[in-house]
Design brief:
It is built from 19 helices and 19 strands. It is an alpha/beta fold. β2 (44-47), α2 (53-67) and β3 (72-74) form a beta-alpha-beta unit. The protein is globular, with a radius of gyration of 25 Å. It starts with a helix and ends in a 24-residue tail after the last helix. Its EC number is 3.2.1.52. Residues 1-18 form the signal peptide.
Length: 560
Amino acid sequence: MIKSFFFSLLLCSTFSFAQEVKIIPQPAEVIANTGSFVISPKTKLVVANKGDKATATFFNKYLLEYYGFELEVVQKVSKNSIVLKSLQNIDGLKGEGYSLKSDNDGVLIEGNSNQGTFYGMQTLIQLLPVQKSNSLKIASVTVKDGPRFAYRGSMLDVSRHFFPVSFVKKYIDYLALHKMNYFHWHLTEDQGWRIEIKKYPRLTEIGSKRNGSIVGRYPGKGSDNTPEEGFYTQEEVKDIVKYASDRFITVIPEIEMPGHSSAAIAAYPMLSCFPNEKTDIPANMISEKSKQELANGRVKLVQETWGVFTDVYAPTEYTFKFLEDVLDEVMALFPSKYIHVGGDESPKDAWKRSEFCQQLIKEKGLKDEHELQSYFIQRMEKYINKNGRTLIGWDEILEGGLAPNAIVMSWRGEAGGIAAAKENHQVIMTPGSHVYLDHTQTKNEKEVTIGGFTNLEKIYSYEPIPKELNEQQAKYVMGAQGNVWTEYMQNPAKVEYMIFPRLSALSEVLWSPKEKKNWSAFQTKIETQKKRYEMWGANYFKENNASDLVLPKNGNKIKM
């Protein structure tokens, strides 16, 4: 009877202790052992090879910033040490896999690559207390882990609103802290061109500046008459790409074509089918400065409203040469295997009106304007492929025929991704229904958003492999990503508010084995993670922040 009592007590104690191990994303295997280890300024950080120096630097920077001390980096293993050790071909682990063992004497992280070791270090960070101290007690655990999907990404739109280099780096850190490995950087749009192209200086002299933005979600309210501008120099881009690389994150640039190109057309009107036609926008939807510029003879404007615009790139030799020149400079800056060309929401109105486009359709034996867009994308794909890269496009690139080697990013639901996978094309799932981080987080949201409703549970419930795909077709699903469109995010604090805590849920969707996902357990873990957000100084959504939004005139609540 006494033995049974003590055995039950031990089980309860072990279960209770295991509950304290709250790691996001959930590892493939984690065992909570007895005992603990205390990290203090006397602890040594052992780096076994040069490839792990970036991981050691990240960890020391984290300790210094949030706990006020860092560790001495040494090569010799001893007690009271954290050992980073990248190996190869560890049994049962894929390239990004790692094992972590902590006990009373220290921590050993063994990665199946330098990247795996980095992810093991991120798990160690998840074991750290969420209160500042110079004595950090962590649980004794055994972890064996690796990601479910090869592509774990998040997109940041810097075109609708420009964000400084410091925040772009912080955003990359947020991805790294969640074991995500792709940063999709949306650099060009109707409302702003954000990357320096030395051969075409007007792209930033003119295209990076707009005279105002529409007020709220209702264009009829007019412009705020507040200029928005900014771009990244090539040196800044190189710095950001290196910063991401040190965190094992690949930066994928997006240069939109053929639609969402108003900023480029404002800089170089000859890119338009109708270079002499003025930007057609109702006067009550643009700034006073833009009205004056149009009255004084300016033809094209960087757009001030959100949405889809009919003035798109003309499929002329001038345009193709321009885009090839732009891509030359972009590919020189980004070592990424992948180059994103957009391809979404490109109206065919101008092409239907253009004698040149109609003649081109006949000359190329195309059926319609959709096939003309396919011709446009396939031509750019050939150039990208010739330079050893792979094209990514939104799922509209399926219309009129898919480019031979293209990767489809499926955003209009999952249908595009399903169709592409069935055609043996690689797919990145990013449906607006589940992973758009610009949607409202509650039905009574106090913050202005673009609309939609995607709460934490909906993100967590997402399954990137559609049930319509068989086992072979499912192999073409590379993974998924969250999208942060910034029409209604004017500053870093708003971006943080929109991504947290949803980014944490998405990280578990993409990293953890499907069978290890547990919504009830995640709800417990996220409460600890919120304390970590506070340590980071990050803004985040809290349920009790929500309140009804009311329209200023008719009093009706905004329909989400």
